[in-house]
Design a protein that fits this description.
The protein has 95 residues and is an alpha+beta fold. It is built from three helices and three strands; from the N terminus they run ααββαβ. It has one domain. Helices cover 46% and strands 15% of the residues. It is globular.
Amino acid sequence: MIKRLFNFFKKLRIRFQGRNSQFLKAVKKADELHKKTGKRYRVFFFGNKYHVWAREDIRKKQHAGLLKFEKKCGKDFDGVCFYDTDAAKGGKPCS
């Protein structure tokens, strides 16, 4: 319950801090990369900027020490992504 409330306020902050045009560019980039490589890409908001990362990119960030190793690529990062190109979801925004 507290985690949901925390995520709600985080998304609210990003809504006013992150620009919608930058989000749409990141979504477009994620879709293009997905079509090109067939891999699953997600859009995240870290460091006041939108990032498009695949599983390999997340693992590289973890090995570099930028992200915690305790977080799993699929399970934990799906909770903080804003867009997912997963074919099962049909490219829907994450909840």
